[in-house]
Amino acid sequence: MDKHINPSTRAPSGTARVLRLAGPALWALGLLIPQLLSPAWITIGGIFAIYSIVALSQDIVLGRAGMYDMGHAVFFGIGAYTCAILSLFYNWPVLWTIPVAILLAAALGAILSAPIVKLRGDYLLVVTIGFNAIFVLAMQNNLFGLTGGADGLFGVSGPTLFGHMFGTQSDLFYLDWIVLAIVLWLMRNLDRSSLGRTFRYLKHDELAATTLGVNARNYKVAAFALSAGLAGLAGTLFAMQLSAVSPGSFRFTDSVVLFAIVLVGGQASVPGVLLGTAMMFVVPQIFTEFAQYRYLAFGVAMILVMILRPQGIWPARKGVI
Amino acid sequence: MNTAVSQPSGHDADVLLELDGIGISFGGLRAVDDLSFKIRRGEIVGLIGPNGAGKTTVFNMITGVYRPTDGHIRWHGRDITGFAPHRIAAAGIRRTFQTIRLFQDMTVLENVIAGQHLRMRQSWWQGLLNTPAQRREERELIERAMTVLQQLDLADVAHEIATSLPYGAQRRVEMARTLVAEPELIILDEPAAGLNEQESAGLNDTIRAIRDKGITVILVEHDMSVVMNVTDNIVVINFGKKIAEGKPADIRSNPLVIEAYLGQDDDEDDPLMNTVKDQVNA
């Protein structure tokens, strides 16, 4: 190896350096929410963290691997129902339901996607809508007598960790916020790893990627599994936060919202997706008197962004290394 | 040398790739018909023919993009007909594309790292957890990519977005992406297309340098200054059939080849036709 080759990555630009510090700083600032803001905002903060995780997981399939998954609420729902069913019917400690929910959602993601990843984008989108419709129907019809029908299940408690029961809204907020940090760290690592790069190779040019040795099918299934696993994780937090799960939270329209958050925020862009989630779940709370217009506002935003800024409000940085 | 593969009796050990009567039809069109030729280790082989003769289709069959409807493709004597592209890549065959196919929005370095996909040892969880072993491998991937970029005079633009580079540089990035895998055979689909005279002269040196590394080269090319100067052997096809095969000097004076090219009288700019015309008039 020649000595003068400098294999180090390029020096980060000024904005990149600011961002690298701004992200953790904003997260740390968020930790103060329970001290500074009203109880309503503590819940909003928790919900924001949960939906951020789901939207980031949607972005693995959609923004990175480039597959139009319009049924992502299914995996979110699997996580939530797994947590509720295991803790309510089988008296599992809530904490233990988390790894099971992640694995179950990931397995379902792999099984459902394996036969369909060969489909072209628009066909895959229609199939995933079908998955979502079937999931909601199954939950409404009290599948195996476990899902509680249209009303869902009630009474999920927070987990007990190190002898401390996460019962209050601010306890749950801290839990959500810490899990969000872990997921953000995983996303950062994903983008710098072979796995994340291979997803992007497949999105940009599948033929070129396969002639370089990429087994496209395996990697697409892996994208679905990873994405579904993270959505399942978010689902368990959701069940704890609301202490209830019902089919109404995991409908096709919820999948559409997740899809739109990624497109409006910026595909494969972590700050973009967080911004999109905030627009959808936080901004409406600031203007509560207009809250009933939030779909209208988001709809208009979607139209304007797609026309004026198709790469999203905060597009992904080009080139990670 | 792949000694694990049992070699059929009479198999020439020097033969790397053998096309044996391959053919493919698209609907009613017979794009390639009963085509056979062999490529020996260390050769630079040119595949030429008029537009629409089926040259790129042949490449697509070798690399698994299309599945031949007839015949066999053998690699080290082993039948690889109809293998998926990623298995062809794993066998040690890499290609470039006639229309450059770089990963847009990604840097030159990221594009070249893609060529090392099959060398990657990090597992998915090592990547997600950013383990020390994974970070070490990432550094090695970058170092190897930089070495190849340096050889192709691209080190200065390693962090540029690949598709923002001039055309000639993009071609070299695509070549770097195949070379970094250290393949046994590299397939170049019109590497001189879109290059200016100076760049295509440089291309000759690049192709020879590739061969000098022990990599066998097969190329489709219209630029006769490239084909006639660098190839050891030329296969000429027309309407999907082989019409001639031999050394560049023989091909130049082959009457069938002259006819195939002269037959295209509306293609005044075809360089081989002009070369051939000069020969005929001389």
Commentary on this structure:
The complex is a heterodimer of chains A (321) and B (282). Chain A has 321 residues and is mostly helical. Chain A has one domain (24-251). Helices cover 67% and strands 2% of the residues of chain A. Chain A contains 14 helices and four strands. Chain A has helices at 14-30, 33-36, 39-64, 73-89, 94-113, 121-140, 169-191, 194-204, 206-211, 216-242, 252-265, 270-281, 283-286, 294-308, and strands at residues 153-154, 160-161, 164-165, 244-245. Chain A has a two-stranded antiparallel ribbon with strand order 1-4. Chain A has a two-stranded antiparallel ribbon with strand order 2-3. Chain A is globular, with a radius of gyration of 20 Å. By secondary structure, chain B is of the alpha/beta class. Chain B has two domains: 12-92 and 183-282, P-loop containing nucleotide triphosphate hydrolases (Rossmann fold, 3-Layer(aba) Sandwich); 102-182, no CATH class. In chain B, 38% of the residues lie in helices and 22% in strands. Chain B has eleven helices and ten strands. In chain B, the strands form two sheets. A six-stranded mixed β-sheet of chain B has the order 6-7-8-3-9-10, with helices on both faces. A four-stranded antiparallel β-sheet of chain B has the order 2-1-4-5, with helices on one face. The longest helix of chain B is centred in the middle third of the chain and has 20 residues, at 132-151. The N and C termini of chain B lie far apart (46 Å). The interface between A and B is large, with 38 and 47 residues.
